[in-house]
Amino acid sequence: MLSVKHVYRLGVKELWSLARDPMMLFLIVFMFTCQIYLAASSMPETLHNVAIAVVDEDDSALSNRIVSAFYPPEFKTPVLINLSEMDQGMDAGNYTFVLDIPPDFQRDLSAGKSPAIQLNVDATRMTQAFTGSGYIQKVIMGEVGEFVQGYRLNAEPKIDLALRMRYNPNLEVSWFGALSEIINNLTMLSIILAGAALIREREHGTIEHLLVMPVTPIEIMISKIWSMGLVVIISAGISLKVVVQGLLNIPVQGSILLFLCAATLCVIATTSIGIFMATVARSMPQFGMLSLLILLPLQLLSGGLTPRESMPVLVQKLMLGAPTTHFIAAGQGILFRGASFGDVWINFLAMAVIASVFFLIALNRFRKTISRMA
After folding, report:
1. How far apart are CA 172 and CA 309, in angstroms?
2. Which residues of the chain carry a pLDDT beneath 50?
3. How many Å apart are CA 106 and CA 285, to the nearest integer?
4. Which in 147, 313, 336, 351 has the greatest CB count within 10 A?
């Protein structure tokens, strides 16, 4: 029969083993602090404080107008440099873009000619270089067109679509980045910690000690699930309060407690997956390679990085059997939109069923592995 005392003692033993593993402790702290901050503050897909310089060889009203068209937050204040400083500044990484406005640019344009402005791009910053090049061309064409025509043509459509962002009015990318990263890290660490706990037992030879003790496989498995799951859930809760709400000042719309309850159901399933993988792998390197095959689909196809609606119908149906699909749906609803339990109960029910199935599968595999070792 299941002994609560055995489960508690074995779980405490797992916590002490984790406390003596500095690399795992560093991974937990890094993933729920630095990684969350980086995911919120680094926005490679958007222009933000991009360094730009201008070589103004014309020094006309039009060239000054073009220079003043670049301003924060997309760009830093443009730096006026000489032609001889352009290559040196780009080689040193001081500027991502450098505009070279040729002499007599305004005069040639007024005379009906087609003068060209040279745009130099630091292609090592790939995403910003691609996005920024098109944006800069659009800005320059707008200023030139307004100068030539004497006004800026803004064709008003007959039907206008008014978009209002209810939960993120200013479309702050950091709000989505930080909260989504917590959901992804919680899933990843729960799998890694549970699997590493079992492999650590095997590598240190302590699994043989457990076999001669009056404990059952289900007690060993539950102890690993509750101990490693508790570490991940507490870390996620602290990260939400300290890093997301405190350091980054990102609002959380819903109940953190309800989110952690959803995380608990997901963690039961993911830690069971981690234990199952640990019974298949023979060492930590094998477990790490196997984790890639599991973690990538869970993160890429569950709706955390890309909307599930944009995926093939077959993939959408297959991923309904993954706990992360329902956890991401519930987590985003709670954290982004302030959803209550009545709004996400179907996701809770799905996670409970999936967690039960994965637990039984992992327990059956774990019992067979233990019996072979005995």
Report:
1. 22
2. none
3. 64
4. 351
What one-character-per-residue DSSP string does 258-305 give? HHHHHHHHHHHHHHHHHHHHHHH-SSHHHHHHHHHHHHHHHHHSSSSS
In a domain, 155, yes or no: no
Q: What is the pTM of this model?
A: 0.73
The answer on 316 and 340 residing in a single domain is yes
pLDDT at 1: 56
Contacts of 249 (CB under 8 A, 6+ apart): none
Alpha carbons 153 and 145: distance in angstroms, whole number? 8
The reply to whether 223 and 180 lie within a common domain is: yes
Domain count along the chain: 2
| Tokens of residue 350, six digits | 């799905």
Residue 47 lies in a domain: no
| Domain co-membership, 306 together with 343 | yes
pLDDT, tens digit, 9 for 90 and up, residues 57-99: 998 988 899 999 898 888 888 999 998 888 888 888 889 899 9
Domain, as residue range, for 106: 52-149
Contact 120, 93 (CB under 8 A): no
324, 215: one domain: yes
For residue 127, give the CATH number of its domain. 3.40.1710.10
Alpha-carbon span 285 to 295, nearest angstrom: 15
Residue 222 is encoded by which pair of tokens? Answer: 């539950």
Residues 126 and 234 in one domain: no
Work out whether the CA dihedral 103, 104, 109, 112 comes out positive or negative. Answer: negative
Tokens of 345: 């109960």
Q: Is residue 319 part of a domain?
A: yes
Burial string for 236-271 (b: 16+ CB within 10 Å, else e) reads bbebbeebbeeebebebebebebbbebbbbbbbbbb
Bridge partners for 241 per DSSP = none
pLDDT of res. 171: 67
* Average pLDDT along the chain: 85
